C-alpha cells in the first residue's frame, strides 16, 4: 500500500538512533516502553542507560529493593510505573524463570503492562502482528484519513487499532509500528507541524481540508485539583533534619518527604506557626520559623497542581535519628523536594 511504502521510506531516512531499537530482548524493550510512557525520549534516555547499567537483567531488577528502584527512577515521575516495574520484574524472575511471555495476550497479564506496551513488546521482540496505538498513532491516522472520532473514548481506540492493523504488513509489523510512532514524534507533531515538507502532503486528508490543527479530536477534559503543601524542614542544633515516608495510596507512594502541613489554600507565617507549635512539633521548643523562598513552587502533575512552600523550623535540641544534608540525598524523593535539597535551600 502506498501509505506503508511512503511511511517506511521516510522512517529509514529519518529514524533516531535509539538503543532499544538495536535489540529484540523483551526485558530491554519492556524497560524502555515503561519509561517512555508520558515521557519524552530525551528525558527517558538517561534513565534507560542508568537502569540497564545497574540492573542489566530482569533478575538484577527483581533482586533490588523498592527503595533502590525508586531512587534510580527519581525525577521521571508517575512513580506507580516504577513500583509496577519492580513487581513485574520479580514475577518474571521468580515465577517465569526470567522469560517474558511471548505473545500479546499473555503480556497483558503482567502488572503495569497495558495494551500499548504489550503490543510494542509483542511486535518488537516476537514479530507478532499487533498494532501499537499511542498518541502519535492517533494523530497520524486521524489527520491522514480525516477521522473525527473522539480519541478519549474506548471505542475509538478499537477503531484506530483496526485501521492500523489493516495498514500493517503481517510479515514485518515491528518496522511499521516503529515507523508510525516515529513519524508522529518527529514530523506529524501536535502543534504547528511543517506540512510543506511532509512526505504525505499530497495525500493527507486533513491538510487538503485545512483541518490539521483540529485533529485528533479529544473532547474529554482532565479535571485538575489544586492542593497546597507546606513542607516543614526541621533543623536541630547540629543541623540535622527529619523526613517521613509517604505510605498512603496516591501520589508519591513510598517516596520520602519532610513533615507536611496540607492546607486549603496558600497560607502565611501565622497559620504555619500555629500548626507547627500546637499540632505538628508540640514536643520541641521552637526557636524560629521562616519561609525558605519568596515564591510558591507550583508542581504540575497530570491531575493535580501542587502549590508548595518550604518552611525552616529551628529547634533548640537534637533530633533523635536525625539526618544530615548528605544523608538526605540517599533517599528517594519527589523531584521537587530533591531539587530543594540539592540547592541547599535547606539552609535558608
TrEMBL record:
The keyword Repressor does not apply. It is an enzyme of class 3 (hydrolase). Pfam families: HHH, HhH-GPD, NUDIX_4. SMART domains: ENDO3c (SM00478). It comes from the Bacteria. The keyword Cell inner membrane does not apply. Residues 35-186 form the HhH-GPD domain. GO terms for biological process: base-excision repair; mismatch repair. GO terms for molecular function: 4 iron, 4 sulfur cluster binding; 8-oxo-7,8-dihydroguanine DNA N-glycosylase activity; adenine/guanine mispair binding; metal ion binding; oxidized purine DNA binding; purine-specific mismatch base pair DNA N-glycosylase activity. Its cofactor is [4Fe-4S] cluster. Its EC number is 3.2.2.31. It catalyses: Hydrolyzes free adenine bases from 7,8-dihydro-8-oxoguanine:adenine mismatched double-stranded DNA, leaving an apurinic site. Keywords: 4Fe-4S, DNA damage, DNA repair, Glycosidase, Hydrolase, Iron, Iron-sulfur, Metal-binding. Binds 1 [4Fe-4S] cluster. InterPro entries: A/G_AdeGlyc_MutY, DNA_glycosylase, HhH-GPD_domain, HhH_base_excis_C, HhH_motif, MIG/MutY, MutY_C, NUDIX_hydrolase-like_dom_sf. Adenine glycosylase active on G-A mispairs. MutY also corrects error-prone DNA synthesis past GO lesions which are due to the oxidatively damaged form of guanine: 7,8-dihydro-8-oxoguanine (8-oxo-dGTP). Belongs to the Nth/MutY family. NCBIfam families: mutY. This is Adenine DNA glycosylase. It comes from Flavobacterium resistens.
